[in-house]
Amino acid sequence: MEIDWVEAWRIAGIGFGLVFVILAALAVVTWLLRLVLNRNNGDDEAENKK
Amino acid sequence: MDSIFKTGFEALTWGNIIMLVIGLVFIWLAISRKWEPYELLPIGVGMILANLPNTGLLVQPQDVGGEIGSAGLLGTFIEYGLLRYTILPQLIFLGLGAMTDFGPLIANPRLFLLGAAAQIGIVVAFLGALALGHFGIADFGLREAAAIGIIGGADGPTTIYLTSQLAPELMGITAVAAYSYMAMVAIIQPPIIRALTTKKERETYMEPQIRHVSKREKIFFPLVCTILVILLVPRSAPLVGMFMFGNLIRESGVVERLSKSAQNSLINIVTIILMLSIGASMPGDLVMRKETLLVLALGLIAFSCGTAGGVLLGKVMRLVTKEPFNPIIGAAGVSAVPMAARVAQHLGQKENPRNFLLMHAIGPNVAGVIGSAVIAGAFLTMLL
Which of A3, A19, A33 lies at the smallest CB-CB distance from B371? Predict the structure, then answer.
């Protein structure tokens, strides 16, 4: 069977690259989420203490 | 002389007989060895039912023009649940989402990278399948190669979802390969982990306690994941959307009945139908084809390379992180939830009885589920 290797490597590269980029982006977003939400939590806790 | 009554014996082929034996072996493994019994038992029964001739069970509604009463039960499941609408794997993802705790991953987001690294097995098997096609050993094109490669994601529903759309003729064998290798994760992974790590690395002690993850974080996480991942890879929506929806109903805490249903009744019912259908997608002539053996071999290579990819990135992370880091947990990035995480836990504890790696391994484990759904979406975008 005739295989278009350029296309095959492009698909493999994009597929694996996308997984890395997206999961890395999710890691960053999750870390930011923690910062934002924990700051708000801190505010809530401070308010509760008042 | 034509008989008015036909038994199944006269239509029985050698292929059917071999598949009946394989079905019985699956049932034996499920009952006796307790290997993935929820999957292997119904798959085994599906294989047996599909390979008993003249039953009519496999007649699909499209084969009889939708004529009422003419289609068979398994044929109807296969056509509507897998081939035409691919409903079943998506519903399984909903249930899995409701059963998943993202806490360990949210607590340590770096573990996302291990889930990504373990997807390398998919790429290796994809290129390997194409190489077989190139050299004329098998008739695998780009679509078939993607369907075979996804076995390396070690995620049954993702394999079924992708294969049913790209190469439906391979659906039975890719799904059976994925579930079989998931069942054998405790046999496949340890030698690879041992080969790639030193004893000192495997003994590394990690604090078992992970940080407390707030309810807000757990609620926001599936929402953020849904929007970000689907915007970047829209074709992953059926899997990622259902997975995250299931998780949100679990974490929201306001729809307990839905959460319980998704975790129990829904996933149980769908598992029965899906696994029976998968078993029934294994006709007798399948074992007679050399492609079947090649798919099984490539699936094993994919699974092994995925394990290696996770472990090797684990070794890199060990070098760059300040805290002690055990690279064994990288192997859990291949999905196979929660078996791969249990393997990491078991192996880590065997090397160092103080170790309790389960919570750390669950992180890459669930990241791997997201990763394999992303790569499946990417393949669909590029190949459909």
Answer: A19
